[in-house]
Amino acid sequence: MRLAAPHIVQYQGSKRILAPQILRYMPKRFNRMVEPFAGSAAMTIAAASEMRAGAYLVNDLNGPLVGLIEAVVANPDGFLRDYAAVWEGQFSFPDGHLAHFYKIRDEFNAGDTRPANMYYLLARCVKGSVRYGRNGNFNQSPDKRRHGTSPSKLAKNVKCVSALLRGIAQFSAIDYREVFDRTAPGDVVYMDPPYQGVSDVRDCRYLSGVSFNEFADSLEVLNRKGVDFLISYDGACGGREYGQDLPEGLGCRKVMLKAGLSSQALLLGRKSVTYEALYVSKGLIPLMPTVKAEKAAQESDFFPEAASW
Ligand SMILES: C[S@@+](CC[C@H](N)C(=O)[O-])C[C@H]1O[C@@H](n2cnc3c(N)ncnc32)[C@H](O)[C@@H]1O
């Protein structure tokens, strides 16, 4: 049984549980891992736990989110101190902990996007699911039953993530296409764009949506440069497929990874397995595990949680 790598924060769409399966499609060692849609950086952390790459580039258009991960890596003690001050504030707030959440959320939306505030909003909001309004403001509500991860509980993971990535990770908050321009052969680019259900529109679940056509066209840049890549892009549940396939002309191989039982189907009394698609670029196809090896490995995987859709 393989245990999950350390993680910093609960984030909608996190690949933490699926990471051991995705890592099987990456080379054992390579120069640099690039994550243009890093979110909580679950894949970067998982790859660093296995020392797969000599360097890492963590990018997400959501600046405060990248800023949070950078602070955790660069200055774990400073981050924990700041977070403790924000987190403890909720217990002495005159109008109770919910009012404290709204105060921090107002400050965040007014421009105080410090890592401690970002972390507190993520740790306290409903299901760790960020929601953004049309004006780009964070508008998710607090989870009334929880106070958010305590700083003492968080400390071990924060220090561990910092030890894995300090000195070898770079951070940016730019559009994924600009990240593609900065790649070179020897990099492996892992991509997990927002789900296609919301392509071509603003995605309130993240700061921005991603157009399917623009994304598919941009991938040609990586092929032209000879840069290897992997893409998690939608999937299937209960026999129903979600999302459009990427164009065959890209030369990728699509595999379906078992992501666990669908929590929504479980609520309706059904047991449906959720699969997530992984596209493997041309250069990585010869390294793919055989079907037999993949099946054996999946059986030994550890799925502590149901998939979220
Ligand atoms: C499905 S989430 C990634 C989750 C991540 N794999 C994890 O483990 O937490 C998609 C991410 O893409 C980011 N994003 C959306 N549009 C983007 C763009 N144009 N360029 C870069 N990142 C973008 C969102 O902010 C969001 O964090």
Fill in the CATH topology of the largest domain: Rossmann fold
- Class by alpha and beta content: alpha/beta
Shape: globular
Helix and strand run: HEHEHHHHHEHEHEEEHEH
What percent of the residues sit in helical stretches (DSSP H or I)? Answer: 25-40%
Ligand list:
S-adenosylmethionine
Total beta strand runs: 8
- Count the domains: 2
Share of residues in strands:
15-25%
State mean pLDDT (0 to 100 scale).
88
What is the CATH superfamily of the largest domain?
Vaccinia Virus protein VP39
Q: What is the name of the CATH architecture of the largest domain?
A: 3-Layer(aba) Sandwich
Low-confidence stretches: 302-309
Alpha-carbon distance between the termini? Answer: 25 Å
* Oligomeric state, counting identical vs distinct chains: single chain
CATH class type of the largest domain: Alpha Beta
Please tell me how large the radius of gyration is. Answer: 19 Å
Give the helix tally: 11
**Mind summarizing the main beta sheet?**
8 strands, mixed
Short précis:
This protein has helices at residues 19-23, 42-49, 63-74, 76-89, 97-109, 115-124, 151-165, 176-181, 212-225, 263-267, 291-299, and strands at residues 30-35, 53-59, 169-172, 187-191, 228-237, 240-241, 253-261, 273-280. The protein is an alpha/beta fold and 309 residues long. The site of S-adenosylmethionine has 22 residues, from helix 2.
Tags for this entry?
single chain; 309 residues; Adenine-specific Methyltransferase, domain 2; eight-stranded mixed beta sheet; alpha/beta; 8 strands; Rossmann fold; disordered C terminus
Would you mind describing this structure in some detail?
The protein has 309 residues and is of the alpha/beta class. The chain has two domains: 19-61 and 174-299, Rossmann fold, CATH 3.40.50.150; 73-154, Adenine-specific Methyltransferase, domain 2 (Orthogonal Bundle). The protein is built from eleven helices and eight strands. It has helices spanning 19-23, 42-49, 63-74, 76-89, 97-109, 115-124, 151-165, 176-181, 212-225, 263-267, 291-299; strands spanning 30-35, 53-59, 169-172, 187-191, 228-237, 240-241, 253-261, 273-280. Strands 1, 2, 3, 4, 5, 6, 7 and 8 form an eight-stranded mixed beta sheet that branches. Strand 4, helix 9 and strand 5 form a beta-alpha-beta unit. The protein is globular. It starts with 18 loop residues before the first helix and ends in a 10-residue tail after the last helix. Mean pLDDT is 88; it is low at 302-309. It binds S-adenosylmethionine. Residues 11, 13-15, 36-37, 39-40, 42-43, 60-62, 175-176, 192-194, 206-208, 210 line the site of S-adenosylmethionine.
